[in-house]
């Protein structure tokens, strides 16, 4: 991988240094990932290093989501299943809604503040429902505690064991754990009006752990960010990761620059859409942001309860690299072993009078793009002359080829949208028919 330019490295260091000073953080460490690995890592303050553990808080939710989607991809669950279908007595909230925080659950569990109290004896995970928020985004930590319990129940092992076996070991995240292991940072709160510190408790949150228990390092999170950019078939494929980045539920009325997917926060920075997660626990704050279009990610870890806007700083680090050193695209190469039947589908198609282009892609995929708007969708092969959309308006919709008696493709149907080779022709394929007088 190419090294960053000296000017870029200095700009990154300057942003990191100012964040540490302005946020009065005892320590702060950051990394930038590009072209398949970490290209920059630096730190400020005391007791820092690439191998020092910090608590990463709600970034844990992204790890849990990967475990849940593995269950889905193996056919053990559907995201539309109610959680009670697998955990009897735990309600009718859909798994998809728990992942997207749209199930209408309370933000916090009942009882004392779970982040600062021992959770090993906690027996009740669900607080009062918020029915008015069902279907809308309402962040819920108990929802992810339930998802962790789902993983443990279906795998027959505690969720931490499943996490290690299915994500940490395959990706080489050997310094990512549920409980801190030396060397690790201590968690601090900084007095709001004086430069003095107060230690924060390092609690084991027990059943609430899937909402924010994990500890990790800058090196390990950089590897995890690389996985979030490209996927790894040993853990989760790129298609499922792309689904995690798809927005679900409406954002707040004043928050149109941010949204939430499945276990991933989404942030719009200019023309760039970032995906990842922020995390906070008493004494710690962290962020992982990725920009798949730039093949760049940034990681930030600090050991202060408040004061450092970790999401904004990490986004700044990513933007510095993406703007100063834009991604150089890979060389164009022809598709290997293109199916002649797919080549016959290539070219212009029309939805009514609106022109579209259809292009074959690697692996039997298709790419359908409007020539008069920004609408674009990639479709994965589903066999038997069918494809399934993976984004935009046609996400999850099925493309089906329609043939005449001779076997020639006359049109295709994509979620009831009929596409033909000529505008509104053949007339027999057009829902509602075509005026007999034709074009005039």
TrEMBL record:
InterPro entries: AmpC-like, Beta-lactam-related, Beta-lactam/transpept-like, DUF7586
The entry's keywords: Hydrolase
MF term (GO), any: hydrolase activity
Residue ranges of domain Beta-lactamase-related in the record: 19-317
Domain DUF7586 residues, every copy: 339-421
Highest taxon above the source species: Bacteria
Protein name as annotated: Serine hydrolase
Organism: Paractinoplanes tereljensis
Source species taxonomy: Bacteria, Bacillati, Actinomycetota, Actinomycetes, Micromonosporales
């Amino acid at each position: 991988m190419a090294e960053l330019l000296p000017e870029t490295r200095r700009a990154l260091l300057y942003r990191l240094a100012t964040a540490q000073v302005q946020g009065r953080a005892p320590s702060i460490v950051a990394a930038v990932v590009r072209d398949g690995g970490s290209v920059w890592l630096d730190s400020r303050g005391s007791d820092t290093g690439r191998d020092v553990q910090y608590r990463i808080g709600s970034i844990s939710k992204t790890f849990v989501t990967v475990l849940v989607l593995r269950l889905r991809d193996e056919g053990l669950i559907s995201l539309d299943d109610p959680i009670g279908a697998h955990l009897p007595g735990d309600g009718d909230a859909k798994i998809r809604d728990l992942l997207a925080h749209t199930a209408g659950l309370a933000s916090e569990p009942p009882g004392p503040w779970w982040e600062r109290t021992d959770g090993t004896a906690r027996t009740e995970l669900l607080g009062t429902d918020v029915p008015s928020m069902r279907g809308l985004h309402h962040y819920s930590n108990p929802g992810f505690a339930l998802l962790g319990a789902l993983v443990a129940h279906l795998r027959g092992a505690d969720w931490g064991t499943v996490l290690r076996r299915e994500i940490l070991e395959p990706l080489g995240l050997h310094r990512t754990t549920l409980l801190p292991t030396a060397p690790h940072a201590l968690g601090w709160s900084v007095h709001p009006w004086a430069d003095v510190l107060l230690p924060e408790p390092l609690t084991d949150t027990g059943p609430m752990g899937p909402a924010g228990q994990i500890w990790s390092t800058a090196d390990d999170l950089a590897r995890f960010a690389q996985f979030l950019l490209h996927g790894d078939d040993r853990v989760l494929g790129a298609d499922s990761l792309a689904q995690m980045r798809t927005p679900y539920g409406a954002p707040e009325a004043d928050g149109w620059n941010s949204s939430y997917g499945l276990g991933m926060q989404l942030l719009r920075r200019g023309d760039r859409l970032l995906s990842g997660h922020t995390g906070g626990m008493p004494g710690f704050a962290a962020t992982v942001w990725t920009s798949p279009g730039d093949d760049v990610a940034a990681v930030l870890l600090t050991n202060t309860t408040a004061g450092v806007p970790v999401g904004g700083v990490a986004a700044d680090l990513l933007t510095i690299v993406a703007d100063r050193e834009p991604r150089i695209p890979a060389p164009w190469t022809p598709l290997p072993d293109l199916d002649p039947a797919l080549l016959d589908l290539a070219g212009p198609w029309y939805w009514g009078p609106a022109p579209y282009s259809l292009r074959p892609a690697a692996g039997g995929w298709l790419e359908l793009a409007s020539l008069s708007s920004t609408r674009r969708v990639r479709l994965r092969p589903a066999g038997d002359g069918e494809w399934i959309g993976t984004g935009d308006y046609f996400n999850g919709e099925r493309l089906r080829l329609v043939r005449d008696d001779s076997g020639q493709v006359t049109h295709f149907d994509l979620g009831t949208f009929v596409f033909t080779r000529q505008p509104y022709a053949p007339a027999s394929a057009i829902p509602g028919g075509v005026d007999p007088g034709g074009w005039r």
